[in-house]
Amino acid sequence: MKGQKFILMAGLLTAVTACNDFGDLNVNPNNALNPNTASLLTGATRTVGTINSQVGPAGFNITPALYVQQFSDVTYIEDSRYKTINFSFNGLYSGPLVNLQQVIDQNTNEATKGLAANYGSNANQIAIARILKAYIFQFITDRWGDVPYSQALKGDQNFSPAYDKQQDIYNDLFKEWKEAAAQFDGGKTVTGDILLSGNATRWKKFAASLRMIAALRLSKVDPAKGKTEFAAALADGVLASNADNVRYQYLADANNENPLYTNYVRSNRDDFALSATYVNYMKSVNDPRLPIYAAGNLKGEIVGAPYAVFPAPGKATDYSLAGPAISAQTAPVNIMTYAQVLFAQAEAAKLGWITGNAKTLYESAIKASMQQWLGTSYTDAAFTAYIAQPAVAYTEAAALERIGYQRWIALFFQGTEAWNEWRRTGYPVLTPAASPLNGGTGIPRRLAYPTTAVTLNKTNYDAVTARQGADTPYTRVWWDKQ
C-alpha cells in the first residue's frame, strides 16, 4: 500500500512539474501579457492635463496659482494662507512615469517591440514617451527640488531610491529632450497620443521649447550653460505661432472634463475666484484680456476676491470666477504657448543670450497672448494702445520688470509656470498673505516632501535634507537664486 501511495505521489509531482514549475498557475488570464502601449500613453497624457489644471484642496495647479495671486480662495481661506505644507509626488511616480517607462521598455525589448509596433513605430513611441517623461520630471523637481530620478522607476529592484541633485536632473533633461526629438524616424504614426496626435513635427517643437524654458531657469545659477542651451534649443525650432500652442483638450464627459467646471458647476462649490491682486492690476492697465479671464459676478461686474483674508468679506457670488474660456466643461488647459516662448526670447535678448531685439520680442509676446485669448475680437488698434501705456511700454531700464508682469498676465491658469517665473525673477512684486498658517511669513518657495518620504525612505530623506536644506516651504530649490 505504501508503495502504491509513493507511485501516485511521484506521478502527481511529475505532472505538476511538467506544467512549467507552477508557472501557469500564477498567470492571471484577464491580464494582457504585453501592455497596450497606446493606452499607457493616453493615461500618462491625461495626467499632463491634470497636473496643469487640477483644483481643490492641495490641487496640483491651483496651489501655485494661489501663491502668485492669480486666484484667491473664497470658501475655505486656507490654501492662500499656505496651510498645506507637505504635498505628495507619489502618484506621479506610480502612475504616468511608470506608464511612460513601460512604453519605452515595451518598444525597446526585443521580445515585445514587434507587438508594440502595432501602436506606432518603436522609435516614435519611445521619443514621445521620453519627452513626456522628462516634462513630468521637470514638473516634480521644480516643485520639490532634489527628487528621486536616476534610481527611480526600477520597480522591485529598488524600493528606496536616492534623491538626485536638481542640477544633475536638469543636465539630464536637456539631453533627454534633445535625443528624443532626434529619435523620430518617420515611421508609423503613434496612436494613443491625445496631446499632439502623434505629429512628430509638433513634438519636436515642444521638446525644443521645453529646453528653452528650462535653460532660462538657469539665468541666476548657471548663466553660461543657460545661454548655450537656450541658443541650441532656439536653433532646433521652437513654437512659431499660436497654431503651435500645446494644449490639453477636455471633453464633454464627466470623466475627462475641465476641473474648474467640476468645481463650479458639477460640485456647485465656487471655491476659487480671481484675486483682487490680479484683477486690480489688469484693470490698472486696461487689459482687454480681463473679460475673457474673468466672469462677471451676480451684478455683472468684474470684482477680484480679497487675497487670503479670513473670514472672507462676502460670498463667492460677490466675486469673479474664471470665465468660460478657462472654466467651461471642454475648455482646454495650456501646457506651452507661443507667447510664453516669445517672453523667454525677450528676456534672453535682454540678457545678451541671443541677438534678437528685446523690445520687439516683448511686444510680439503680448500680441501673441492677446490673439490667443481674444481670438476674432483682437484688433491691432487695441494692441497698439495697450503697449503705449506707461506701465506697459518697454524701456531698457525696466525691461525685466515689464517682461515679468506681462508674462504673469499671459500665464493665467498656468500656475506652476507662473510660480516658477516669480521665484526666479521676483516679478510680479507680491505681498504675502497677512496671516500664514504654515509658521512662516513669506510666499512658499517650494513644496515639502510627502510624509511617506520619512516613513518609507528615511535614509535617503535624511541625506537629501542634510544636503538641500530643511524640508520646509522656504528652502529654495537649486535654480532659485533670486
Structure description:
- By secondary structure, the protein is mainly alpha-helical.
- Helix content is 48%, strand content 4%.
- The protein has 20 helices and 6 strands.
- The chain has helices at 2-17, 37-51, 62-67, 90-106, 113-116, 122-144, 166-183, 200-216, 223-236, 259-266, 276-284, 290-293, 324-327, 338-351, 358-374, 380-387, 399-410, 415-425, 452-456, 458-468, and strands at 71-73, 147-148, 163-164, 246-248, 272-274, 333-336.
- The strands form 3 sheets. A two-stranded antiparallel ribbon has the order 1-5. Strands 2-3 form a two-stranded antiparallel sheet. A two-stranded antiparallel sheet has the order 4-6.
- Helix 17 runs antiparallel to helix 18 (415-425).
- The chain is globular.
String of helices and strands: HHHEHHHEEHHHEHEHHHEHHHHHHH
Task: Give the distance, in angstroms, between the N- and C-terminal Cα atoms.
Answer: 87 Å
Q: Total helix count?
A: 20
Shape: globular
Going by helix content, strand content and strand pairing, the class is mainly alpha
Portion in helices: 40-55%
* Secondary structure tally: strands: 6
- Which residue ranges are poorly predicted, with pLDDT under 50 across at least 5 consecutive positions? 1-25
- Widest β-sheet, arrangement of strands: 1-5
Q: If you average the pLDDT, what whole number results?
A: 92
β-sheet strand percentage: under 5%
Biggest pleated sheet: 2 strands, antiparallel
Rg over C-alpha atoms, rounded to the nearest angstrom: 25 Å
